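I have been asked to look over a protein record a colleague put together. Alongside the sequence sits a line of tokens, each denoting a local backbone shape. Please read both lines and tell me whether the tokens look consistent with the sequence. I do not need a full report, just your reasoning and any doubts. I have pasted the whole thing underneath without changing anything.
>
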Amino acid sequence: MKMFRQILKYSFAVLIVFSTIFSSSALTLDEARELYKAGKYKEAAPVFKAQLKRRPNDGSLNHWYGVCLFHEKKYNEAEKYLKIGAKRKVLESPHYLADMYMAQSRLEDAISSYEEYTAALSKAKKQIPDSIGKAIARARRAKLMLQYVERVQIIDSLIVDADSFFKYFKMSPESGRIGTNETLGIDIPENTIGYIPQRGDNVFFGYPLEGKGYELCTKNKLIEGKWSDIIPLPNGVNTEQDEAYPFFLNDGVTLYFASNGEGSIGGYDIFITRLNLENNTYLKPENVGMPFNSIYNDYMMAIDEMLNIGWFVSDREQIPGKVTIYLFIPNESKQTYNIDEIKTDIKSLALIRSIRESWPENADYTDSLQQLDNIKEPQKETRPDFIFAICNGIHYTKLDQFVSLEARNLYVKSKELRKNIIQIETKLSELRSQYTKSKGTTLKRLSSEIQNLESQLLTLYPQPENYENQARKIELDNLQKEHR
């Protein structure tokens, strides 16, 4: 009986081994290529790997397997196979090599491989995509930037959820607040981050435009706690790409923001600009450089001038769903490393591979970090839902204060109409912007849509006030009846 159990156990183990071998080899090369084309690189990779044992010098197999490893971010393994693909004149291998080198911040290798790729495309009489020219420009900018890495003290770092990073910006009240529409209590788009200065009389945020991207906008606080329509920031900051994550210093004119447009070396880069008060336009934005920016997404720089501490966010660690918040000591003026004098690899300092490498000898940041711990969470203001004047001395701030259900419903309808008017005005503003850049049939279509929306607005504009007046009259009548 014991021997039978051993035989059974052995047979079961052999069965598992053979089933594993069979399952991995069940896919044909053609099937693996279809998976590859569908972007299912992890499933296709074992087949290519097995085939390479038989045909190690096959250019296509090396390329396919290298691309699979590239998409799994196994860059060190991928390099060997992509190099063979490039040597065997597989057209796309230099392209993937270049992207891989960029991901590793091997900038000279990236430039060389991109140029090899463009040469191969030219030889094959194929069009060179604009994206490749832009990639080469980014790599060259990053290479130049590497020579002027700012000497800044990174005092701490936190890996946090990307969706709620703003909760960890513990700034003094004088520096304002950063958050979402929910945490700030202001009607801004749900998928954006806003900044409110200390005065609380305006909010700045990236606004998503249909068919474009994000542009920096503001809303101003009006009387009775209402807010203005969305207003784009003055000329100088918004481009055809994305601009978001704004923050102003206490002077009210120095603006930090993130952009993935011209001048960026990766996704979002952090830029600085200043408002020219004479003509109400912004000066040409400047990239703040390394170590703040990388080939990945870097954004939301904020500086607390009271505590002399700054923050910025980066996804350079490439952890899904997570970002790193870096805390640093702001410099009064920019100071860069002298590459000839430092012992540490400048690339390591630029990429912030170790925050301790940025510390001067005997540095102690205990007091600075303790200041952050001592900041109490700001008390949320109790804001009224609305302010509706019934008559002198009687103001409603909640719907349950209405005595008359009919008056309450009329007031709710007036609020819904005002919200609808704002939505139409926003849409109209977008269409007018598109109209100025359009031609032919598109111009005619937009003209018709604009006229239609303008007609709707003319009809809607008087309605909210009419409903409010009706609500006010009915509510007053009911209040008088109660006091008779």
User: Anything to note?
Assistant: The two ends are 100 Å apart (CA to CA).
